[in-house]
Amino acid sequence: MRTSPEAFLIAAIATLPLLGAPRLCSAWSYPAHKTIAIIAQGRLNAAAAKRVKELLGSASLADISACADQAKRSAVNCGGVLELPMMPQTRQWHYVDVMNTMRASEASVEDACDGNCLLVALRKQVAVLRDPASSKRKQQMALVFVVHLMGDLYQPLHCAEKMKDGDPDAGGNERDFPSFSMNLHHLWDLMIMTNTDGYAVDFEQLAGRLKGGSAGTFSLDDLSQAAAETFAIAKDKIYPEYAKHRGHTPREEYIAEMQPIAHRQVGKAGASLGDLLNFALTNPSSTGSAAAGAAASEATHAGLRSVQTSVQLFHLPTGLSVTCQESRSQGQNRLSARVLLADKLEARERERLARLRHEAEKERRRRRGRSRASKARMLKEKHHRADLKKARRRPSSDD
């Protein structure tokens, strides 16, 4: 008998442990993370695939895709290649809580980050992957987190939250969804899965269906934009739909509307992860200032030696980064990159101050109340409307 989509989603909660998954708490489900990793592995170029092999041995990206979630709660053997200690301090690495009232912009995302969030964690872990001086163990741990956190970046409720009864709703964890007997966040963790997957998920087949994600090259400079786009999905689609029915939307109707969005996000996550690993694993850097390919490399098609002089600078307190490759001189590129980074920091600060002034003005107007003249105008307008209504009344026999 064919299992209905909603019955499958509910049953999946009990089924995931049988697949070796971690307990659901605050991320895409294990199948989603594993599917993202499979898509990414299929996009690796030869050099990046070789580097992954050196770091993981016989294990794959899919084998390590859920370890970062498990390590928040307990020590874990990750893919048979790495023992991770319990790391509760990494909980904040899995999300960036942009309040639902903010604009869907890179500045809003960076402000919400506050120096310790998903974006900063990703930038720091990519820097470890690119640092030739990092030990193999550090690079293995960095790869574990990059693989997992890139998936979290595309889960809408990891990039947004909304006030509920005076407190943040923790990305929908505090909003019950009675139609599915779970909360909104957990429902979205499972939204990727369909009734056709059955209870023994064919991850390769699932990845094949969803791999049509974003094409092109994804770099560290794209993280804020990706987070802003993910936030917009929660702000414009998930929270407004929930507000209409308070979690009582008919199950098949909700799945039909939201599951295609979840599938697109997983496809994008896999494509972006593959592109980012191609960059991180084939472009070594120096600490803080990443000179991409600073050493000369052989041009395979012409036998000529070419020097890559692209420079990437990181501002660790905010997680901002810039890349410059305008000149053939690495020194000139580094100087230009510093100017770009300074401009970016200045623009960020201007936006922050403008928002503070706007909020202060709103609060001032709210507290000020109406002026005497304003009250008089309002009263006059009320009297005018009353006279109009009186004139439109049907005449009585006494008139």
Concise summary:
52% of the residues lie in helices and 9% in strands. It has 13 helices and 13 strands. The radius of gyration is 26 Å and the shape is globular.
Write a concise keyword list for the protein shown above:
399 residues, mainly alpha, P1 Nuclease, Double Stranded RNA Binding Domain, 2 domains, 3-stranded antiparallel sheet, two-stranded antiparallel sheet, 13 strands, disordered N terminus
Number of domains: 2
Mean pLDDT: 80
Distance between the termini: 76 Å
Q: Write the CATH homologous superfamily of the largest domain.
A: P1 Nuclease
Describe this structure in words.
The structure is a single chain. By secondary structure, the protein is mainly alpha-helical. It has two domains: about 5-280, P1 Nuclease (Orthogonal Bundle); about 290-295 and about 305-365, Double Stranded RNA Binding Domain (2-Layer Sandwich). Helices cover about 50% and strands about 10% of the residues. The chain has 13 helices and 13 strands. It has helices at about 5-15, 30-45, 45-55, 65-70, 105-115, 120-130, 135-150, 185-190, 205-210, 225-245, 250-280, 330-370, 370-390, and strands at about 75-80, 80-85, 100, 160, 165, 165-170, 175, 180-185, 290, 295-300, 305, 310-315, 320-325. The strands form six sheets. A three-stranded antiparallel sheet has the order 9-12-13, sandwiched between helices. A two-stranded antiparallel sheet has the order 1-2. A hairpin with a 4-residue loop joins strand 12 and strand 13. Helix 2 (about 30-45) crosses helix 9. The longest helix has about 40 residues, at about 330-370. The N and C termini lie far apart (about 75 Å).
